[in-house]
């Protein structure tokens, strides 16, 4: 037996017990006549002691030869520590070692296995197995596990069935993003890896499963932006015989229970906002509502005062940054530079200060008299000490720019607190968006999303105006889930494919099986999918999803630890009837 | 709202309530003046009634237009049935319908949606979503879900962490069986889909995760035998600082708890048997011990009596088929024909009957006198009424043949009862097996399996003799799980790769990351993986794993419902720098 206890459980209750422990050598303090070793495993740290008086010379010699990350097994007696460590559960005891077995030696690890490591990102990824030994990484994986368990038990209790859908499926029209898998048994033919189990979950609804979920890997072969992974995990859900309200209720309940589990806090009823409202109030369809700084539209007040920039703008809009009137010129210039960066692309920014002395100062005093500025200030609801920042331009653009500034200020001012949870439903998304590049409509959510019944008529006349029965769950400024009521009428589905520019043949080739299934009694159904990696990160007060993945890939889609992808043998290619060539 | 209740929950308790139900039309009985409809959903069936006296003419007309599998919503009052159906929970009530809404029509389904369907395998797979509406299929998916939940909760309670390992990994030496995935971002390079997360779970142990599990999809691109799937699901587990005994104890507990959940029965301690013993007693490393018919070796008793077939044989071995002495000549000939089939390949079989009248008859009376036959009978422990069947030949072959016969007789005699569970650990497997074809050793389990410490010396002198710390969990004659204590010493691991014919470069290229990890303090570890699809099937008293997969593939690896794999666009191939060619 390698251990009688783990390294996290012994206390004064175990005094004088003979125990056996195993683990890694975290630290060695060698005072010559005495040696202390911190022994670590997943569960904690236990201090081991060897000394001249109480240990044999051999044992001491043995202990002296140990190094960091050596794997050892010891037996000994639990004794009380003279200098206690109240920070750890085992801090009141230590083990007077009687026997030491070296289970495995270790070379010096490439970085320190401490909460704060000296290892850089690349080293840590290459030696991810060592990185995982560190508490911050290990704890994130354990947190992820607990969240998955909680989700599964919550949904199971609500009658949801977890059904595994296939990983080897068929390539879809968004095919450019599909990973494909050549079939040896069917030469020249390919499977695709699912970007989501969308069609399968709809088929399960047609199959009468009624309530389905799955925590499932999905795949997307696209250029990776920072913190995107080619394989990612979804909590995928679908329900039959429901309306939007039923879906929102279930998953609000689930999310609230996760938040409660973590924080002990009740979230109350989640606020809801339409897409239009979110864009107007926050310039963003996933607003962080942990803080205010809502958008204030100013066209009425600022136009016609000969300030050309505002006069020419489609929209003049601003935010009130509370308590920041004392920002220096330098601080304000830094913000102006920030919005002028190419990533944001604003041409400038106007400021108005409602100073603590009651004076209203601004960068546009030339154009606006005191009365005008006062009216603007009132519109903002600003009080003495507040700083107002105004941007202008083409409405959509300026909203996006101001939204970025709002988030930046939220960060700078510490308003985006990791331990605070502000969920929000955003509803009534547009059904379609016009893509200038391809000159046609794209589904904003996906092609199976149902238009709002009242808006179906727009499909014939002005499709861009149709809103969808689609909804996103937003948490702390991140979209953690999204879904929709689905189309279940084969004619409406055909119409949608048509609008999206599919020929009938294309629709048939890609989704024939789904269209066919619609012929045999498809029930009304709706669903939702959570990005599980992101959900977990945000629930843990973090935003870096990579930290919550045991073996993530880098921005080039590479696993630097195992060195994948890699070249394969010619015989293997040959078996697949494939050859690799330079790009034509 | 589509429904106030499901179709499985209304009873006399709900009498006179106004309810709304939704579902599929299972059956319509139209008596002209009265119409009964069975309305079905996942939860059950509720009878609807329309009649001339109590329903409007329009409503009756509407109901008459419905067909099988139409999706409808109804509202009405719960009333007591005149003729009750005690077989279903809702059998005492029916709904007097006041309002009927057609949610979706259905074409006539290609097969009947009944427990016993008229649909053939191929039709059912093509329209799998209709097949899933049938109780036997739906119930199997629900059963699978429940088992997965039970496993997850059991292991979580024991401190196991579910960690998701990557699906896009690196191709391994058993590469011929890997599905590969071309990478668009890394042209000419491929990921592979995992045949199991073996190396990753070992890295998690090196990473200190201590107790890991995962219910995870695995992939194998090999010619599919009946009931093999290119993608299948494992319960994958690994533990650190454990010996074989610890692993057996945990997973025995888990399996026992699943069996208890299903059958209410306690299994008691699982019996154990070494590989050698299993081969000797049952001719098989996964014996079904729900019934006896153990092998009896007869060399001592039967040789030297001038019966050339036995004299020439390496092994003469038989089974006692209790109570079958009255088998007719025709019945026995059928068994002889059965073992002579090419799949079994026996050259013949000898029978001995211990008749009910005390006489011992046999097909070898010419060679064996009464006394000899009596001794043989005694060796079998046979009693009056028993039939003994003897086979002979090369030891390994004849054991395999007789084992097949034993199983066939088990089936014929109804000894393999679906609701009876007989688990068994088989231990001490050989470490290596010699492959005549390639002229070298193959790992019987996998290259990471530890030899028994006592047997390590054989690696130098006679590797074939080394036994492994490997174990299988057998249930009702099926291997449901298998695992081993792993090598955690880098020198021993190198030695193993060498024995398996890897050059150092090959070992480095394929497993360098694991060998490297062994340098940094690898703990002792061991694990096990269950074939989840098979486990679920067997626990449900079935053996056809395909039935427990929502969307299975056929024997050519095709999903006939979605028609995958399929051809992909040239542009897509081009993006991957690939071209398809005829086999060279």
TrEMBL record, chains A, B:
<dbReference type="Pfam" id="PF00152">
    <property type="entry name" value="tRNA-synt_2"/>
</dbReference>
<keyword id="KW-0648">Protein biosynthesis</keyword>
<comment type="similarity">
    <text>Belongs to the class-II aminoacyl-tRNA synthetase family. Type 1 subfamily.</text>
</comment>
<dbReference type="InterPro" id="IPR006195">
    <property type="entry name" value="aa-tRNA-synth_II"/>
</dbReference>
<comment type="function">
    <text>Catalyzes the attachment of L-aspartate to tRNA(Asp) in a two-step reaction: L-aspartate is first activated by ATP to form Asp-AMP and then transferred to the acceptor end of tRNA(Asp).</text>
</comment>
<dbReference type="GO" id="GO:0004815">
    <property type="term" value="F:aspartate-tRNA ligase activity"/>
</dbReference>
<dbReference type="GO" id="GO:0006422">
    <property type="term" value="P:aspartyl-tRNA aminoacylation"/>
</dbReference>
<dbReference type="InterPro" id="IPR012340">
    <property type="entry name" value="NA-bd_OB-fold"/>
</dbReference>
<keyword id="KW-0436">Ligase</keyword>
<dbReference type="InterPro" id="IPR004115">
    <property type="entry name" value="GAD-like_sf"/>
</dbReference>
<dbReference type="Pfam" id="PF02938">
    <property type="entry name" value="GAD"/>
</dbReference>
<keyword id="KW-0067">ATP-binding</keyword>
<dbReference type="InterPro" id="IPR047090">
    <property type="entry name" value="AspRS_core"/>
</dbReference>
<protein>
    <recommendedName>
        <fullName>Aspartate--tRNA ligase</fullName>
        <ecNumber>6.1.1.12</ecNumber>
    </recommendedName>
</protein>
<feature type="binding site">
    <location>
        <position position="479"/>
    </location>
    <ligand>
        <name>ATP</name>
    </ligand>
</feature>
<comment type="subunit">
    <text>Homodimer.</text>
</comment>
<dbReference type="InterPro" id="IPR004364">
    <property type="entry name" value="Aa-tRNA-synt_II"/>
</dbReference>
<dbReference type="GO" id="GO:0005524">
    <property type="term" value="F:ATP binding"/>
</dbReference>
<feature type="binding site">
    <location>
        <begin position="531"/>
        <end position="534"/>
    </location>
    <ligand>
        <name>ATP</name>
    </ligand>
</feature>
<dbReference type="GO" id="GO:0005737">
    <property type="term" value="C:cytoplasm"/>
</dbReference>
<dbReference type="Pfam" id="PF01336">
    <property type="entry name" value="tRNA_anti-codon"/>
</dbReference>
<dbReference type="InterPro" id="IPR045864">
    <property type="entry name" value="aa-tRNA-synth_II/BPL/LPL"/>
</dbReference>
<keyword id="KW-0030">Aminoacyl-tRNA synthetase</keyword>
<dbReference type="GO" id="GO:0003676">
    <property type="term" value="F:nucleic acid binding"/>
</dbReference>
<dbReference type="InterPro" id="IPR004365">
    <property type="entry name" value="NA-bd_OB_tRNA"/>
</dbReference>
<dbReference type="InterPro" id="IPR004524">
    <property type="entry name" value="Asp-tRNA-ligase_1"/>
</dbReference>
<feature type="binding site">
    <location>
        <position position="445"/>
    </location>
    <ligand>
        <name>L-aspartate</name>
    </ligand>
</feature>
<feature type="binding site">
    <location>
        <position position="220"/>
    </location>
    <ligand>
        <name>L-aspartate</name>
    </ligand>
</feature>
<dbReference type="InterPro" id="IPR029351">
    <property type="entry name" value="GAD_dom"/>
</dbReference>
<feature type="binding site">
    <location>
        <begin position="220"/>
        <end position="222"/>
    </location>
    <ligand>
        <name>ATP</name>
    </ligand>
</feature>
<feature type="domain" description="Aminoacyl-transfer RNA synthetases class-II family profile">
    <location>
        <begin position="144"/>
        <end position="552"/>
    </location>
</feature>
<dbReference type="InterPro" id="IPR002312">
    <property type="entry name" value="Asp/Asn-tRNA-synth_IIb"/>
</dbReference>
<feature type="region of interest" description="Aspartate">
    <location>
        <begin position="198"/>
        <end position="201"/>
    </location>
</feature>
<dbReference type="InterPro" id="IPR047089">
    <property type="entry name" value="Asp-tRNA-ligase_1_N"/>
</dbReference>
<feature type="binding site">
    <location>
        <position position="174"/>
    </location>
    <ligand>
        <name>L-aspartate</name>
    </ligand>
</feature>
<keyword id="KW-0547">Nucleotide-binding</keyword>
<feature type="binding site">
    <location>
        <position position="229"/>
    </location>
    <ligand>
        <name>ATP</name>
    </ligand>
</feature>
<keyword id="KW-0963">Cytoplasm</keyword>
<feature type="binding site">
    <location>
        <position position="486"/>
    </location>
    <ligand>
        <name>L-aspartate</name>
    </ligand>
</feature>
């Amino acid at each position: 037996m390698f251990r009688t206890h783990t390294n996290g459980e012994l206390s004064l209750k175990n005094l004088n017990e003979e125990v056996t422990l195993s683990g890694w050598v975290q630290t060695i303090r060698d005072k010559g006549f005495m040696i202390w070793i911190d022994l670590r495993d997943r569960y904690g740290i236990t201090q081991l002691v060897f000394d001249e008086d109480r240990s044999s010379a051999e044992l001491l010699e043995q202990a002296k030869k140990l190094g960091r990350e050596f794997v050892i097994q010891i037996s000994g007696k639990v004794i009380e520590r003279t200098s206690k460590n109240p920070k750890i559960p085992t801090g009141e005891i230590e083990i007077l070692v009687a026997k030491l077995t070296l289970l495995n030696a270790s070379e010096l690890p490439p970085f320190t296995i401490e909460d704060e490591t000296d290892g850089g990102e690349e080293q840590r990824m290459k030696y991810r197995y060592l990185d995982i030994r560190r508490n911050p990484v290990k704890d994130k994986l354990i947190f992820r596990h607990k969240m998955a368990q909680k989700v599964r038990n919550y949904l199971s209790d609500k009658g949801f069935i977890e059904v595994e859908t296939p990983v080897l499926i068929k390539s879809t029209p968004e095919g450019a993003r599909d990973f494909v898998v050549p079939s040896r048994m069917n030469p020249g033919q390919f499977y695709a890896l699912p970007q989501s189990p969308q069609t399968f979950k709809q088929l399960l609804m047609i199959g009468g499963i009624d309530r389905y979920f799955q925590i499932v890997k999905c795949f997307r072969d696209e250029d990776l932006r920072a913190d995107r992974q080619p394989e990612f995990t979804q909590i995928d859900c679908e329900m039959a015989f429901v309306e939007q309200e039923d879906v929102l209720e279930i998953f609000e309940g689930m999310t609230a229970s996760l938040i409660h589990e973590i924080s002990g806090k009740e979230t109350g009823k989640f606020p809801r906002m339409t897409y239009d409202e979110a864009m107007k109030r926050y310039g963003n369809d996933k607003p962080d509502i942990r803080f205010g700084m809502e958008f204030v539209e100013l066209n009425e007040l600022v136009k016609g005062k000969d300030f050309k920039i505002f006069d020419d703008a489609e929209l003049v809009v601003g935010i009130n940054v509370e308590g920041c009137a004392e920002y220096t010129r330098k601080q304000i210039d830094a913000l102006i530079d920030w919005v002028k960066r190419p990533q944001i692309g604003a041409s400038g920014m106007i400021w108005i200060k409602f100073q603590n002395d009651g004076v209203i100062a601004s960068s546009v005093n030339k154009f606006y008299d005191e009365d005008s500025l006062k009216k603007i200030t009132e519109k903002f609801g600003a009080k003495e000490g507040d700083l107002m920042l105004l941007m202008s331009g083409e409405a959509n653009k300026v909203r996006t720019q101001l939204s970025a500034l709002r988030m930046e200020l939220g960060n700078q001012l510490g308003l985006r607190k990791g331990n605070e949870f502000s969920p929000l439903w955003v509803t009534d998304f547009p059904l379609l968006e016009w893509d200038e590049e391809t000159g046609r409509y794209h589904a904003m959510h996906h092609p199976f999303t149902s238009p709002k019944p009242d808006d179906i008529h727009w499909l014939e006349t002005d499709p861009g105006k149709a809103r969808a029965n689609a909804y996103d769950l937003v948490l702390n400024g991140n979209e953690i889930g999204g879904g929709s009521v689905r189309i279940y009428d084969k004619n409406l589905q055909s119409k949608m494919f048509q609008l999206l520019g599919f020929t009938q043949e294309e629709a048939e080739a890609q989704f024939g099986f789904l269209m066919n299934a619609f012929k045999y009694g498809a029930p009304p159904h709706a669903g939702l999918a959570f990005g599980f990696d992101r959900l977990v990160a945000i629930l843990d007060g973090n935003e870096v999803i990579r930290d919550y993945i045991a073996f993530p890939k880098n921005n080039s889609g590479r696993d630097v630890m195992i060195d994948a992808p890699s070249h394969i043998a010619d015989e293997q290619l040959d078996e697949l009837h494939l050859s690799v060539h330079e790009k034509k």
